[in-house]
Design a protein that fits this description.
There is one protein chain. This protein has three helices and ten strands, in the order αββαββαββββββ. By secondary structure, the protein is an alpha+beta fold. The protein has two domains: 31 residues; 156 residues, Immunoglobulin-like (Sandwich). The strands form three sheets. A five-stranded antiparallel beta sheet has the order 1-2-3-8-6, covered by helices on one side. It is globular. The relative contact order is 0.18.
Length: 200
């Protein structure tokens, strides 16, 4: 009789231990690993150390621009070639004939005015300029030929048409051939404003 009770007790204890282990294992499997940080730039590759983190927003009562991401590639690198092939970017910009770099940005533009906002790469360049060196070398716009006719394209923008209060998150490319001393964003709005992502 005592042996039977002992066996039953031992079996119950073993079952409880197994079940407890399963609960712990199940709990461990549902724990999510911390998400990897999102890469917003490769500025350090060019010796640039950020003073402020992205995203950076420049805005006034008519227009808002937010830079979420910026990647700089050697113009003939595999990354740049992949973007050029996919979207049909030309081999030169509006001004620069033999660029050294392709600059790929993720941006949000917003119409904060009370009237329609329409334009293309030239209009964006009139409002927003990027600078990297003491000579203020041109950071030139470059058009995605495969998407030039598409308005508000979220993959590779050239033309935008925004109603009051409307915004667009998209990608926009530039070419560049200067040096890398700092990185600033200049906004030509009602007033001229400038923010340094990387200080001089």
């Amino acid at each position: 009789m005592k042996k039977t009770i002992l066996k039953v007790t031992l079996a119950a204890t073993m079952m409880f231990s197994v079940n407890l282990g399963n609960v712990r294992a199940a709990g461990a499997s549902t724990t999510k690993a911390p998400a990897a940080p999102v890469m917003t730039d490769n500025l350090s590759k060019y010796g640039l150390k950020k003073s402020i983190e992205l995203p950076v927003t420049m805005s006034d009562q008519d227009f808002s621009y937010t830079l979420h991401k910026i990647m700089i590639y050697d113009f003939n690198s595999k990354e740049a070639k992949a973007l050029r092939d996919k979207y049909g970017y030309q081999k030169s910009g509006t001004v620069l004939v033999n660029p050294k770099y392709l600059i790929w940005t993720k941006i949000t533009i917003a119409n904060t005015s009370n009237k329609n906002l329409y334009g293309g790469g030239g209009e964006l360049e009139r409002r927003i300029n990027l600078f990297f060196d003491d000579s203020r070398s041109i950071v030139d716009t470059i058009g995605p030929m495969k998407h030039m006719g598409k308005t508000n394209n979220k993959d590779a923008m050239w033309t935008f048409d925004l109603n009051p209060g409307e915004k667009l998150t998209t990608y926009f490319a530039y070419v560049y051939e200067g040096e890398f001393d700092y990185f600033s964003i200049q906004h030509f709005g009602k007033e001229l404003t400038e923010k340094y992502v990387v200080k001089e």
